């Protein structure tokens, strides 16, 4: 029996609730609005004109394995939400036909690994992978995402930061890794943020509520300015003056909730000189 899917108009744009990313979903029910007839079509056929105007897709089907789907006819698509769908695996190439969109969210699923060729070259501005079970991210998983401006990986189980992440992501300015299990920010942790970062003064990193107890003195070597650097509620016992040597300005620095036992006078002076809004 085919799976039935509904789509409705919300505000001034279309909102589609769709179950068309699984093998058994061969029939979609598209409802243009309350005053006009409902439309039925098979996913293998041409997409109706009304559906091509869809700007937002919300998937509400349980999908253990997210397969490739043809999004090429959805020319106006701006947001794709595949949240709380029990997704465990994303097949490489699943989003290859997706045109440039504003937001892609895969929150609240069962994803453990982010492999190469899932998001590479994807033209998306905001990527949200929070509230999963992610323990592993391939070193090249986010390479060549030239439109990517923000990425959220809050509430996962990441332990090790890789300095190889985010090669050729010149628009990336906002990264959030709150509530993970990171213990260390290594040497040259942000090396791929040197050079051609477009939004130099907007760079924000949120590592709040991790287990970070070591920040290498050269971890932030390649960053000149931070809009926000949030390290609240970690396990930091000390910070070296060299940590912020190459940083010229930080608009907001949050160190509260750390068991800092060694806070040199020189470090305090550096923070007062370079940080507009310190929270210690």
UniProtKB/TrEMBL annotation:
This is Uncharacterized protein. Residues 1-20 form the signal peptide. Gene3D superfamilies: Ribonuclease Inhibitor (3.80.10.10). Pfam families: LRR_8. Keywords: Leucine-rich repeat, Repeat, Signal. It comes from Henosepilachna vigintioctopunctata. The keyword Signal applies. Transmembrane segments: none annotated. PANTHER family: AGAP008170-PA, INSULIN-LIKE GROWTH FACTOR-BINDING PROTEIN COMPLEX ACID LABILE SUBUNIT. The keyword Ribosomal protein does not apply.
């Amino acid at each position: 029996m085919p799976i039935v899917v509904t789509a409705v108009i919300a505000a001034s744009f279309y909102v589609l609730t769709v179950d068309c990313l699984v093998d058994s979903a061969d029939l979609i029910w598209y409802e243009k609005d309350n005053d006009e007839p409902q439309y039925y079509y098979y996913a293998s056929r041409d997409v109706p004109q009304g559906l091509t105007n869809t700007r937002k897709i919300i998937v509400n089907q349980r999908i253990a394995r997210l397969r490739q789907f043809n999004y090429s006819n959805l020319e106006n698509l701006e947001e794709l939400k595949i949240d709380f769908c029990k997704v465990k695996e994303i097949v490489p190439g699943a989003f290859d036909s997706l045109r440039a969109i504003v937001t892609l969210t895969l929150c609240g699923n069962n994803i453990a690994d982010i492999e190469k060729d899932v998001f590479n070259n994807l033209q998306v501005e905001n990527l949200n992978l929070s509230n999963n079970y992610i323990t592993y991210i391939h070193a090249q998983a986010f390479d060549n995402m030239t439109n990517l401006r923000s990425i959220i990986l809050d509430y996962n189980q990441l332990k090790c930061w890789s300095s190889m992440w985010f090669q050729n992501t010149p628009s990336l300015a906002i990264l959030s890794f709150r509530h993970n299990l990171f213990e260390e920010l290594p040497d040259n942790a942000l090396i791929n943020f040197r050079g051609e970062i477009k939004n130099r003064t907007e760079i924000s990193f949120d590592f709040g509520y991790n287990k970070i107890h070591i920040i290498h003195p050269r971890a932030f070597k390649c960053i000149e300015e931070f809009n926000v650097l949030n390290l609240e509620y970690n396990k930091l016992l000390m910070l070296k003056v060299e940590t912020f040597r190459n940083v010229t300005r930080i608009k907001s620095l949050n160190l509260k909730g750390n068991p800092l036992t060694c806070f040199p006078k020189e470090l305090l002076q550096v923070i007062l000189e370079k940080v507009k809004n310190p929270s210690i």
